[in-house]
């Protein structure tokens, strides 16, 4: 290359990513969200790659949204060739804007799937067995009639999974020992694929009507934003549990609150919110039939390291001039190749060099 690639990152999920990339011919520049905006833009405006900060991280600072990969950032970074999100979710990136600008968009789906799927199952078991409810009751004083804490079993129930990707697919596997009937709503999966994973593909309306547990594991996109509103919650069984490890805006929080308060649904397990971290006075956090965690489903020691290794490997692939393994906008490739050659001095190849080796 005639120009050394410059990669800006806010932080790694594990330092192993930095260790791996330190041995590559890549200039690493840390974006300090607490520093001045001028310093941040000084780092980014000459960047060739950007490991995008998480929405939760930028929410804690003034004007933090400017550090997401949206129109403002793309316009101010003319040498930017690729942007990557830390995990499977990529709502921190405006894919359409990047594609128009010739910028490749990648995520890191796969490495954190086990952690999120296990967390989703944990929320389901917690709600069904009333574990958190019993813990709260026990700590608040003497327990009277234990029957008020009577839970239910997963065995033989119907599980509805929204999004049969790496996380949803693994969740179906984890639930297999419970002998559950599994329904799946995913427009991008065919009937044969669903059957191969032990599920039946159905429409969303059928899924919400039949399920005892609704598990949302899909990404946030224009198609999924607001997917669950008043109509969907009203169609559910009064005994259903709604669980999401996706992104907050996939469901209407006000509609969910009303459904929980009115008894239209039995409870909810939430790892994601519209505002993250959620305010302590968020109405959902006041409900006894809600179990909540602060977007930590994918945060385990193992997942953090696996994601970091995958992140570093993908950046090595990108700057080696090969197709990244988790490219989300493949239609960008022709223009991306032209820009890559113009900026870095070599033309990418339509193959994975790491796999070829």
Q: How would you characterize the overall build of this protein?
A:
This protein is of the alpha/beta class and 357 residues long. It has 15 helices and twelve strands. The chain has helices at residues 16-22, 37-44, 55-59, 71-76, 95-101, 113-129, 131-140, 166-175, 191-196, 204-210, 230-235, 253-262, 301-319, 333-344, 353-356; strands at 6-9, 27-30, 49-51, 82-84, 104-106, 158-162, 181-185, 200-201, 213-216, 241-244, 267-270, 290-292. Strand 6 (158-162), helix 8 (166-175) and strand 7 form a beta-alpha-beta unit. Helix 1 (16-22) packs parallel to helix 13 (301-319) and helix 6 (113-129) packs across helix 8. The radius of gyration is 22 Å and the shape is elongated.
Strand-helix topology:
Elements: E1 6-9, H1 16-22, E2 27-30, H2 37-44, E3 49-51, H3 55-59, H4 71-76, E4 82-84, H5 95-101, E5 104-106, H6 113-129, H7 131-140, E6 158-162, H8 166-175, E7 181-185, H9 191-196, E8 200-201, H10 204-210, E9 213-216, H11 230-235, E10 241-244, H12 253-262, E11 267-270, E12 290-292, H13 301-319, H14 333-344, H15 353-356
Parallel strand pairs: 1-2, 1-3, 3-4, 4-5, 6-7, 6-9, 7-8, 9-10, 10-11, 11-12
């Amino acid at each position: 290359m005639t120009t050394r690639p410059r990669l800006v990152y806010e932080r790694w999920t594990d330092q192993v990513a930095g260790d791996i990339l330190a041995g590559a011919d890549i200039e690493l520049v840390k974006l300090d969200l607490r520093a001045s905006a001028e310093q941040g833009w000084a780092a980014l405006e000459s960047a060739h790659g950007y490991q995008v900060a998480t929405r939760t991280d930028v929410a804690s600072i003034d004007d933090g949204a400017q550090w997401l990969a949206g129109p403002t950032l793309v316009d101010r970074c003319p040498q930017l060739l690729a942007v990557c999100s830390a995990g499977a979710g990529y709502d921190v990136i405006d894919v359409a804007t990047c594609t128009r600008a010739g910028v490749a968009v990648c995520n890191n789906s796969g490495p954190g799937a086990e952690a999120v799927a296990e967390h989703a199952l944990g929320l389901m078991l917690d709600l069904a067995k009333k574990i958190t409810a019993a813990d709260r009751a026990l700590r608040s004083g003497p327990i009277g009639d234990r029957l008020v804490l009577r839970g239910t079993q997963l065995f033989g129930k119907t599980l509805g999974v929204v999004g049969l990707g790496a996380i949803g697919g693994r969740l179906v596997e984890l639930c297999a020992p419970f002998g559950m009937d599994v329904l799946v709503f995913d427009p991008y999966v065919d009937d044969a694929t669903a059957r191969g994973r032990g599920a039946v593909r159905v429409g969303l309306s059928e899924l919400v009507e039949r399920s005892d547990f609704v598990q949302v594991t899909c990404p946030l996109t224009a198609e999924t934003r607001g997917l669950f509103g008043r109509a969907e919650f009203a169609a559910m069984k009064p005994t259903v549990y709604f669980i999401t490890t996706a992104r907050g805006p996939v469901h209407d929080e006000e509609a969910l609150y009303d459904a929980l308060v009115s008894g239209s649904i039995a409870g909810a397990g939430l790892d994601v919110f519209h505002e993250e971290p959620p305010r302590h006075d968020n109405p959902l956090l006041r409900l006894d039939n809600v179990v909540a965690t602060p977007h930590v489903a994918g945060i385990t020691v193992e997942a953090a390291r696996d994601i970091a290794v995958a992140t570093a490997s993908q950046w090595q692939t990108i700057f080696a001039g090969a197709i990244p393994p988790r490219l989300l906008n493949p239609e960008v490739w022709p223009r991306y190749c032209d820009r890559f050659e113009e900026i870095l001095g070599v033309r990418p190849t339509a193959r994975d060099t790491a796999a070829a080796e």
